[in-house]
Structures are given as structure tokens and as C-alpha cells.
Design brief:
With about 300 residues, the chain is mainly beta. It has helices at about 5-20, 290-295; strands at about 25, 30-35, 40, 40-50, 55-60, 70-75, 80-85, 90-100, 100-110, 115-120, 130-135, 140-150, 150-160, 170-175, 180-185, 195-200, 205-215, 220-230, 235-240, 255-260, 265-270, 280-285, 300. It contains 2 helices and 23 strands.
């Protein structure tokens, strides 16, 4: 498909606010972070490209201690509001684009015992939520991430369960994104590894996950690390974090998700203190998602 000038201009306009609203600073690993906050009091968000336009799918939760409210905000990145979805009882959303439809995945916010999905062909009219994955006994499911694999679709879903340090991803496969079958073992039984974002690129599964550095002292930080695997079983880990707090970002860089278009990878991520202060921010990497993951040195041992 050829990109017309108007379409190209629209795509570029979704990126330009990153550069002219504030002066971006180059961070580690070639990532340019925007200094200003994109949206306050939100964390789980997914940038997508749909119909040649870049959007943010954002889960807005009620503040700690307030009555539970769960809604999903859909907007052009740096642009207009498209829709707001009320999803009572659901939280921790992710989104995935397949052909002409966008699918949102969300977890049950009370028992955390299932994952539902809903989809749309226009971002305004959505199907009813449908349960697609249920937790095993003595298991809770939280964050999710879906990618296309070599033989269908693959989901990383964050769990808390007996015998596993909370939190860590497990994996499931599906031929149609409606019927999911858990496969394999947990990503890591012994250490915190939350907020997965999964991709399949050139025969590798690449995943971003959140972990804690210097947990026992005043330098404690929540950082996002890359990992790779051929089979979802044996993993190698990047020797340096992909995202870590800089400047006034507190102790946290979590819930990182990404999308690539026209040779640029755009990220949404959360900073803050992992307690009461949180804000959604943007960053870009000049290169594809594959370029981003391939830049790291990987080793068998975790950070």
C-alpha cells in the first residue's frame, strides 16, 4: 500500500509534538524522552498505529483509596480525543492491532481471575467484553501483552501465584485471539518481573519486563529490562536496563509499551514513585522495534 502525502503528514504530525512542545533529552540506549508529562494519574497504556494514524489506548484508574472507576481513553497521540470506554470491573489494559481491527485485553480488577477482550474496526464502536483466558487455581492474572507469533498469536500474562515470586509473566498461544492455551513455565519463579511487553521479531521472542534494582537500600529503582528467547523457555537478559528513571522521574520507569512506524519506535511509559505519584510519558527511538532490541548485549544471568 502506498502512503499518500496527506497520510504521511498526519503520521508525522503525531510525532512532531514530541519535539516542539519541549526540548527532548537523549537518554540511555538512544532513547529520547520527552521532558513534559503526557498525562497524569495513568499507567497502563498502549501506542498503536491504526489506519495510518498513531493512537494511544490509555487505562485511567481511580486514585488509591477512591471508589473504583475504570475507563479507557482513546486519542490520537498529541491530537484529538476519539472515545472513552467505561469498563467497570476491568483494569490493566493492553491493545493489539490485527488487520482492520483493534483488540483491547483487560483483566478482572476484583478477583484478577480472568482476561477479557473487546474489539473495534473504527475505535468508536466496540464489541462486548468476552472472556478469553481464565486463571488457574490459586493464580491471579494482571498485565497482558499480545504479539503475532510464528503460528498464530502469543500472549504474555503477568501472574501472582503460589510458589512464584510476584510478579512474573506466563505465556499462552492462540490461533484466533479468542481461545488461549497456556504453555510452558513462568518466566522467573524467584524474582520480580512485571509489566511484560512481548514481540516476535526475526525468530526471537523479545520481551520488556519491570524489575527492581538496589531493592534493599536507598537507591531502590524500578527499571525496565529487555530479554530474548527462541522458545519462551530459555531466556537471555540484557546486561543494562532499557528504561530507568532519569531527571525528576522519581524511582520508576514501568509499564513500557511501544509501536513502530516509518522507521521510528514510539514508547509510552510511567514514571513516579510506585505509590501515589504516577504520570504517563513519551519517548522515541530512531529505528525499528527490532533495531531497539538488537542493540542490547544479552547474557544468561539477570541484572
Amino acid at each position: 500500500m502506498k502512503i499518500g502525502l496527506s497520510t504521511l503528514a498526519l503520521l508525522l504530525l503525531t510525532w512532531f509534538p514530541l519535539w516542539w512542545s519541549t526540548t527532548p533529552s537523549i537518554g540511555i540506549r538512544g532513547i529520547y524522552k520527552q521532558d513534559s508529562v503526557y498525562m497524569r494519574d495513568v499507567m497502563e497504556s498502549t501506542p498503536i498505529v491504526f489506519n495510518w494514524t498513531m493512537y494511544a489506548i490509555i487505562h485511567k484508574r481511580s486514585p488509591r483509596g477512591a471508589p473504583l472507576v475504570s475507563e479507557v481513553i482513546i486519542q490520537e497521540i498529541g491530537g484529538k480525543h476519539i472515545a472513552t470506554l467505561q469498563l467497570p470491573g476491568l483494569s490493566l489494559i493492553s491493545a493489539f492491532v490485527d488487520g482492520g481491527r483493534v483488540t483491547i485485553f483487560a483483566s478482572d480488577s476484583e478477583k484478577s481471575d480472568l482476561v477479557v477482550s473487546l474489539s473495534s474496526a473504527d475505535l468508536r464502536n466496540w464489541s462486548k467484553p468476552e472472556t478469553v483466558l481464565r486463571a488457574a487455581p490459586d493464580q491471579q492474572i494482571l498485565n497482558t501483552s499480545v504479539t503475532r507469533g510464528p503460528a498464530g498469536f502469543v500472549m504474555a500474562y503477568e501472574v501472582q501465584e503460589k510458589g512464584v515470586v510476584g510478579f512474573t509473566p506466563r505465556f499462552a498461544t492462540s490461533p484466533d485471539m479468542r481461545n488461549w492455551t497456556p504453555v510452558g513455565e513462568p518466566f522467573d519463579r524467584t524474582r520480580y518481573a512485571a509489566c511484560p511487553t512481548l514481540r516476535h521479531i526475526d525468530g526471537w521472542y523479545y520481551m520488556l519486563y519491570l524489575t527492581i534494582l538496589d531493592e534493599d537500600n536507598a537507591k531502590k529503582r524500578f527499571v525496565t529490562v529487555a530479554a530474548r528467547s527462541r522458545d519462551l523457555k530459555v531466556w537471555q537478559h540484557a546486561t543494562k536496563p532499557a528504561f530507568e528513571p532519569t531527571g525528576g522521574e522519581g524511582i520508576n520507569n514501568s509499564d513500557v509499551d511501544m509501536v513502530q512506524a516509518l522507521g521510528v519506535t514510539t514508547f509510552l511509559y510511567a514514571d513516579g514513585d510506585q505509590q501515589d505519584r504516577v504520570a504517563l510519558k513519551r519517548a522515541v527511538y530512531i529505528g525499528s522495534e527490532g533495531d531497539f532490541f538488537r542493540q542490547f548485549e544479552y547474557a544468561d544471568k539477570r541484572l
